[in-house]
Specification:
By secondary structure, this protein is α/β, with parallel strands linked by helices. It has two domains: 3-188, 3-Layer(aba) Sandwich (Rossmann fold), CATH 3.40.50; 210-296, Diaminopimelate Epimerase, Chain A, domain 1 (Roll). It is built from twelve helices and 13 strands. It has a six-stranded mixed β-sheet. A five-stranded parallel β-sheet has the order 2-1-3-4-5, with helices on both faces. It has a two-stranded antiparallel sheet with strand order 6-7. Strand 9 (222-228), helix 10 and strand 10 form a beta-alpha-beta unit. Helix 1 runs parallel beside helix 5 and helix 1 packs across helix 8 (169-182). The chain starts with a strand and ends in a 9-residue tail after the last helix. Bound molecules: manganese (II) ion. The site of manganese (II) ion has 6 residues, from loops.
């Protein structure tokens, strides 16, 4: 029997839930989790072994147009590829038959997980996909990923997102995969409620501290606030965009990438992200950091530095 392949990202629950869904449906699955900047490289590697796979799914990420063209030129590879993405800046890739970019459907915003669920549910007979607890968790992921909140679920959506950092990615996936197998309704456990409260206090402190270190500048005529942070980038970005007198909040994670957040209607932060080789949504997007950034910082701090191998 052949395997399936799933390529998704490590950033948030919208990259984790596709793995849970795939585990519920497929017996054998190879999972590749990556950063935005790594997608094309990972896909190119996977394609070297495409004959091993029945299907190759890419969820909540997209590939470059050059790579899309390569795939489109091979009937054999194209038939195996399926891309599910909800990022507006990738809508133009819909011209490729194997790429599906949907921002919203019937007035409801989609996320990578919901698009993948719809595909799996309409293609495979797997009753687990329709369990009440799973549908509730998918809705919580969708709301926190798209900020398309409903009054009754907004709090729970935030709380469910907190569990991603509390458990850590692997444990989070394990916990909610097992949860679907063992439960009908979704409910936070008593322990989770306590942990969420502790985590929320910790995040509040972290955000307050970061807000004191914002640098103000202009880039491409946008008034920006820049901060260095590795954690809670979405919450921090929204806090900055809403509370500071800026057009775009920029959060640099030296290890990973740059995040952009905006809240004003007339501001499209993805223009700035695209200018620096990234992309995403109008109000939430990202771009890669230069690969030699950390070396450059070290050289700037330590003018006598000499590099030695590992
Ligand atoms: Mn997403």
């Amino acid at each position: 029997m052949k395997k399936n392949c799933l390529i998704t990202h490590v950033a948030d629950p919208d990259g984790a839930f596709p793995i849970i869904l795939a585990k519920l449906v497929f017996e054998s699955i190879d999972v590749f989790s990556c950063e935005i900047g790594e997608v094309n490289g990972i896909v190119e590697n996977v394609l070297k072994n495409y004959k091993d796979y029945d299907a190759i799914y890419i969820v909540d990420l997209n590939i470059s147009e050059d790579l899309a063209k390569v795939i489109d030129n091979s009937d054999e590879i194209r038939d195996k590829m399926k891309v599910f993405d909800h990022h507006q800046s990738n809508l133009y890739l819909n011209k490729y038959s194997f790429i599906q970019v949907v921002d919203s459907f019937n007035g409801k915003r989609e996320c990578g997980t919901t698009l993948f669920w719809k595909y799996l549910n309409s293609t495979y007979e797997q009753p687990l996909l329709n369990k009440k607890c799973l549908k509730m968790m998918l809705e919580l992921v969708r709301q926190s990923d798209t900020f398309d909140f409903s009054e009754d679920l907004k709090d729970d959506a935030f709380k469910f997102g907190r569990l991603y950092s509390i458990y850590g990615r692997d444990k989070y996936i394990e916990r909610f995969y097992n949860y679907v197998l063992e439960n009908e309704d979704f409910e936070f456990s008593e322990l989770e409620k306590v942990l969420i409260e502790l985590e929320e206090n910790k995040i509040k402190k972290y955000i307050e501290e970061k807000m004191e270190h914002v640098l103000f500048a202009k880039i491409l005529n946008y008034k920006v606030g820049i901060v260095f942070a590795e954690l809670h980038r979405s919450i921090l970005g929204n806090e900055m965009a809403n509370k500071l007198d800026i057009d775009i909040a920029i959060i640099i994670n030296v290890d990973r990438s740059v995040s952009y957040r905006a809240s004003k209607k007339e501001i499209d932060a993805s223009i700035l992200a695209s200018f620096y080789n990234g992309g995403g949504h109008k109000h939430a997007c990202g771009s890669p950091v230069p690969s030699d950034l950390q070396e450059k910082i070290c050289t700037y701090i330590f003018n006598n530095i000499e590099w030695i191998g590992k």
